[in-house]
Design a protein that fits this description.
With 373 residues, the chain is an alpha/beta fold. It folds into two domains: 114 residues, Alpha Horseshoe (Serine Threonine Protein Phosphatase 5, Tetratricopeptide repeat), CATH 1.25.40; 204 residues, Rossmann fold. The chain contains 18 helices and nine strands. The strands form two sheets. It has a seven-stranded mixed β-sheet, sandwiched between helices. Strand 4, helix 15 and strand 5 form a beta-alpha-beta unit. The N terminus and C terminus are likely disordered.
Length: 373
């Protein structure tokens, strides 16, 4: 359907249209998606040039995992109101889910025009261009987006990335929530490194030449090594190869100012890495868990179990797509939750055995205390 057929958004919605739309959005909140789509479709018929009913329909399809219909609804909304950023962004993401990268590119470019300062949109556009094989243009967007965030290293050093630059989405939150706690001569630990984007941001922004970043991964991509070399920051970075459940317990416990957990995203490994991260962090140290709110993964199950076990030892700093906590205890006390749902979904007792906790004699008693020594 072309724009001439649809027309453009004109005039204010009528009271009847708004009432139908409010009813549809109520169904959406309750998860009654068929009823939502029906009510929003009536609103769309009532005022065919109004974009919002199509947004609501798109969200209903999206939450059911129907990306084909979601893309059509969001694209219709974007055609009616090209200035509506979310319509363009969600249409692009729905097209990405179908591997329709050309259509996704058009939507992400429209979203960028609607909001030129949106980091999220520019990250998705870079990812889309990478999927199309246009790595040069993708890196141009990554460099300019990093520069918008006052991180000049990738542009100045012409550092190249081949995978989606999701970390750019977190830079401002890290500046606000993490950086105030980190001394310039700090000792930082990263579990999972990809192409070293987060590694290099930590090495260039959180510490100076007196600090160190320990980066641990089960294997390193060629782009990781080349980016470290290009950065001029090799002396600030130590790379450790191997499974995190083997390598991290070998590090000195209670010695890190910051630990970033972005390794294996299975709930068992997220839990085990989290235990090791808390033990590696010093009292007052920060631990950040990536992909906490990633709906396509079960990372949150492992992290939530960790919080239930170690909640009395931590303060919460930020909860969003990432979870950021601060270790407040010198020694850690573990409370094992009596939660049948967790036990049936995740073998957390086995997961804790992968961590550095050595005394399992109190596993059945409900509480286990141990120190960093």
């Amino acid at each position: 359907m072309d724009r001439e057929t649809l027309g453009v958004e004109t005039g204010a919605p009528t009271a009847d249209t708004l009432a139908m739309l409010e009813r549809a959005e109520g169904f959406l909140r309750k998860g009654e998606y068929a009823e939502c789509i029906e009510a929003a479709s009536q609103a769309a018929i009532s005022m065919p040039n109004y974009f919002r009913p199509h947004v609501t329909i798109g969200l209903a399809w999206w939450r059911q995992g129907d990306m084909l219909n979601a893309a059509e609804s969001f694209a219709t909304s974007a055609l009616l109101n090209p200035r509506h950023f979310d319509s363009c962004l969600y249409a692009g993401r729905a097209y990405m889910a179908q591997s329709n990268y050309q259509a996704a590119r058009k939507m992400f470019e429209a979203a960028t025009n609607a909001d030129r300062h949106s980091t999220s949109c520019r990250v998705w556009l870079a990812h889309c261009l990478q999927s199309l094989g246009d790595f040069d243009e993708a890196n141009n967007i990554i460099h300019s987006t990093a520069a918008q965030l006052d991180w000049m290293l990738p542009k100045n050093k012409r550092i190249s990335f081949q995978h989606a630059p999701w970390f750019l989405n977190h830079i401002q939150i890290w500046r606000d929530k993490i950086q105030p706690y980190i001394p310039k001569n700090g000792k930082l630990l990263e579990i999972g490194s990809m192409e070293a984007m987060s590694t290099l941001w930590m090495a260039s922004e959180l510490i100076d030449s007196h600090g160190i970043v320990v980066s641990a991964d089960i294997a390193y991509r060629d782009s990781y090594a080349s980016n470290i070399r290009a950065s001029g920051l090799r002396e600030r970075i130590i790379s450790i190869v191997g499974s995190s459940v083997i390598t991290i317990p070998l590090l000195l416990a209670g010695s890190f100012d910051f630990v970033y957990v972005d390794g294996d995203h299975s709930p068992e490994m997220a839990f085990a890495d989290g235990v090791n991260a808390l033990l590696a962090a010093k009292q007052g140290g920060i631990v950040c868990f990536d992909d906490y709110k990633n709906q396509n993964q079960d990372t949150a199950l492992g992290v939530d179990t960790l919080v239930q076990c170690f909640g009395q030892n931590i303060d919460f700093i930020h909860e969003g797509y990432q979870l950021i906590v601060r270790r407040k205890s010198d020694s850690l006390v573990v409370d094992f939750p009596n939660n049948p749902k967790l036990a049936s979904n995740m073998q957390w007792r086995e997961a804790i055995e992968r961590s550095r906790v050595q005394d399992f004699s109190a596993l059945g008693s409900g509480q286990l205390a141990f120190s960093d020594g």
